[in-house]
Amino acid sequence: MKRNHVVAQSAATPTAYCQWQLCARSHDQSRRSWTMLSMAVRVAQALSLHVPQPAFVVSPFEQEMRRRLWIAIGLLDVQASLDRASEPMILTSWLQSHPPTNINDNDISTGFQGLVQQSGYFTDTTFALMILKAQCIVRLLNVGDTAESPAMHMEARQAYVADFKQTSYQLLRNCYPESDSFHWYARRVPDCVYASLQLIALRPLQRNAKLITPSPIRGLGILKLSVDVLQKSQ
């Protein structure tokens, strides 16, 4: 029990550190946050955030909080890799093995001991699950020499991008952008992410001679797609 208490309290450390990372990334364009992110990953691994079932007992509430924290670290990891054209540190399989449950925040509390029920509707966690899908796709589109499962054929890369579009459509099918501002935001973000994934699929951040494309993109195709990403972001 003492170890469980220590582990639960220690989980606050990477949470605060991630908040600092978010601020540092927004206000500091140097490599500081990119370099120091590895510390958050190592602390998370020491707390067994990357495994579905840790070797110690955690409550359902703590389990959900640990999973949310883990995908937040994963998002920082993939954003840092995009900023610096480097490979992510976290594996796709580590994120896909135990995602957060699609529930509202008020469905669980610190003393909750029951079974967490997955919701089929738009919840407080749905947007995070959609972003989780996007960051997993980015990792699958990585063509670096140490990538875990590089997609070298353009057909496979386009299939990954289409998979994100289908998943986001399914997750957002019950949201109501006309009546809720957060729902409105959640409905708009996938368009920007989808355009960005298309750009990454066609032009990876790293060159690889093994990448197989049916035909090179000619003329202003890449520029038009890049402008589309900027317009959707705006």
Number of strands: 0
Fraction of residues in helices?
55-70%
The span between the termini is 50 Å
Count of alpha/pi helices? 9
Q: Please give the largest β-sheet.
A: none
Structural class by sheet pairing and helices: mainly alpha
Computed Rg? 19 Å
Return the string of H and E elements.
HHHHHHHHH
Strand content is: under 5%
Estimate the global geometry from the Cα principal axes. Answer: globular
Pfam families: Fungal_trans
Protein name: C6 transcription factor
Domain Xylanolytic transcriptional activator regulatory: 26-88
InterPro entries: Sec_Metabolite_Reg, XnlR_reg_dom
What does this structure look like?
InterPro entries: Sec_Metabolite_Reg (IPR050613), XnlR_reg_dom (IPR007219). Keywords: Metal-binding, Nucleus, Transcription, Transcription regulation. Helix 4 (60-84) packs across helix 6 (126-140) and helix 7 packs antiparallel against helix 8 (181-202). The chain folds into two domains: 1-119; 124-234, no CATH class. With 234 residues, the protein is an all-alpha fold. The longest helix is centred in the N-terminal third of the chain and has 25 residues, at 60-84. The chain has helices spanning 2-10, 12-27, 32-46, 60-84, 92-96, 126-140, 154-171, 181-202, 221-233. Residues 1-9 have low confidence and may be disordered. 59% of the residues lie in helices and 0% in strands. The termini are far apart. The protein has nine helices and no strands.
